[in-house]
């Protein structure tokens, strides 16, 4: 094989395995999350999502090492579903945002399986207890008359890049990904007032909601200080445009 033909084959293989790039804001590029970025994306989630997300913050997740390890291991499993997205800074190439997504199937009972998992770590068990109660209440497959939907499990943007359109762009691309995969709906658990407002602006609608003040376990409000404006955890969804 001559050198020119060998170069063409290498170039073709590079294009085949390169991450797909999506519509992105001016400060970053959004592409499919590949294994090479798993560790950096997980560090972003650990240092910022676990610290800033209302439920994680209130329950002091970072102080529970078992919960942190279990949650990160679970997120890595979700990442391997190959539908997740990453936002990379155009100046540094660093991971500045991530949307961890997974396809949930009614026929495979994905949601039910997630609800019966035993989570190691007291903090994580409390978080998942509320989220799974919300998912059960949502009846998303009936709401959207579908067998599968794209679930966004984690949406995280580095604090330096928040309020700059990165979260909005990641959500929009998640909808595009679902549309490309012929998935008729996207569902997300939003835990802050700010994220819920953003979702409404993008066309998501409220499907189910549980107020933090009413989530009581053993006569105690579990999430009793979620911060100003963060009053509920909400499952919100949107139907995707058909390709």
Automatic annotation (TrEMBL):
Pathway(s) of this molecule: Aromatic compound metabolism; melatonin biosynthesis; melatonin from serotonin: step 1/2
EC code(s) of this entry: 2.3.1.87
UniProt GO MF annotations: aralkylamine N-acetyltransferase activity
Signal peptide positions (record): none
Residue ranges constituting the N-acetyltransferase domain according to the UniProt record: 48-224
Keywords: Acyltransferase, Transferase
Catalysed reactions listed for this entry: serotonin + octadecanoyl-CoA = N-octadecanoyl-serotonin + CoA + H(+); serotonin + acetyl-CoA = N-acetylserotonin + CoA + H(+); serotonin + (9Z)-octadecenoyl-CoA = N-(9Z-octadecenoyl)-serotonin + CoA + H(+); dopamine + (9Z)-octadecenoyl-CoA = N-(9Z-octadecanoyl)-dopamine + CoA + H(+)
PROSITE patterns recorded: GNAT
Family per similarity comment: Belongs to the acetyltransferase family. AANAT subfamily.
Name assigned to this protein: aralkylamine N-acetyltransferase
Originating organism: Trachymyrmex septentrionalis
